[in-house]
Amino acid sequence: MAEFSIIIISYNRPGDTLDLLDSIARLNHRALYLKEIILVNNASTEPYTVVESYLASRSDLPVEYLLAPGNLGVAGGRNYAVPHSSGKWMLFLDDDVVIEDPEFLSKLSIATKHSFMEHRPLGALGVKVRYFDNRELQVTAFPHKDFEHYQHMPRFLTSYYVGCAHVLLREAWNAAGEYPTDFFYGMEEYDLSYRLLARGYCIGYDGSAELFHKESPLGRTPRPVQLSMMWVNKSKVAWKYLPSFYFVTTACLWAGFYLKKSGFNLRFFFSSLRKIMRIPLSIKRTPVGADVMNYLKAVGARKWF
Description:
By secondary structure, the chain is an alpha/beta fold.
């Protein structure tokens, strides 16, 4: 029985989106594993004629092509797409990844059936992501901060998943709730990860299923406005779910990170700082329990930044 719904949120990348769809079309046993593909055009300003023409010529691909009512951001786009899907597992893919292994879906199916923990069912799963250009592992898409220690492990438990390629159990999504609507860009995966753990699920990684990301090995330099949103959102996550000490360390260390990465751009620095200072007054804390804190310690989670 087909168990996977692939969800793609695309913005101004018609060529990359076409490459991704074509790579999905080449996968073996699609009818066995793939229930549907939900493709959301997130109010792109570039024409998607090439994508629309391709879909019209590939009636064998079970694609539902949706036009978002506006640019909903990453989190909002995913929230918009999920109700249109029905698979047991939801595979979220960035629109600039490609799948080269024809057995990707069969390997992913096996990975989701692995028992990572006796008392916690699998709620989310990360896969191996390599750079498209040089084939090296993408550190920023690796779901553990201790990359040197974990990079060669074929499978492990972790505390979060990475947005560009991950699988979510629909049952777990329904239990934990959708992505926060005030997270337009960045850190929404951390927010949902804590809620998945709080609902009794675990988060795993399996490197047997891999794909390739067209992000440059030199990395993308986020604009100051993107860094600002990441700083504010990561501070929100720390405030909501962790002991208050970690809210302070996260806000302070991310301040330094913002200044370094933005080239000391002050335009958004002080506005972000004001937003962070208002977090304790505007957001209710829902800290995770001792069982989740023990889980985070067991899997070597980094909580302070």
